[in-house]
Specification:
Layout lengths: L1 H14 L21 E4 L17 E6 L3 E5 L5 E9 L3 E3 L10 E4 L4 E10 L9 E16 L2 E6 L7 E3 L2 E5 L1
Antiparallel strand pairs: 1-3, 2-9, 3-8, 4-8, 4-11, 5-10, 6-9, 7-8
Length: about 170
């Protein structure tokens, strides 16, 4: 035991004074609650134009206005924007144009931040139809200005036809 103690003492004396230093940093972070996933639409009435009643089927089309999905949830997330429409009902009353005759084309998508997406064709809106599949790796938005097309049957009665298109995102 004395030889070991003497050997350790000699090593310390030869190496000089050995000092052990410790410096620690305390790290902290605040996890902010994720934001919402939301969709905004132009709202209000949109006129698709007018058409003369004809003895052949025709199509009437127009743009709805800018639709925007905002994903503030953070992290890697996916979402789907969908639409559904009611039948076009005439004023005064008469035969409606079925929602299955309404098509939705998102058109070009515009991206901001860390978002991406792909447009999906929606040829008939009688049921919930996906129109944009999106993703984000943080926070971002995707916008588009969809074209709505309505297949008007031949010999359809004159009148003002209205429909409601409802957007959702999940």
């Amino acid at each position: 035991m004395r030889k070991l103690l003497l050997l350790v003492s000699m090593c310390v004396a030869i190496a000089g004074t050995v000092a052990v230093s410790a410096d620690a940093d305390t790290l902290s972070f605040t996890l902010i609650a994720p934001g919402p996933l939301s969709i905004s639409t132009p709202g209000g009435d949109v006129a698709l134009g007018s058409q003369v009643s004809a003895n052949v089927a025709t199509t009437i089309s127009g743009q709805l206005g800018t639709v925007t999905v905002s994903d503030e949830r953070g992290g890697v997330r996916t979402w789907v924007a969908s639409v559904i429409a009611t039948s076009f009902t005439p004023v005064p009353t008469g035969t409606a144009i079925a929602a299955s005759a309404i098509s939705y084309s998102a058109g070009p998508l515009t991206f901001f931040g860390l978002a991406s997406g792909t447009a999906v064709a929606a040829p008939g809106l009688s049921g919930v139809s996906p129109v944009v599949n999106g993703a984000s790796t943080g926070s971002g938005t995707v916008s588009w200005n969809p074209t709505i097309s309505v297949a008007v049957p031949a010999d359809f009665a004159a009148g003002v036809y209205t429909s409601t298109i409802t957007h959702s995102v999940a």
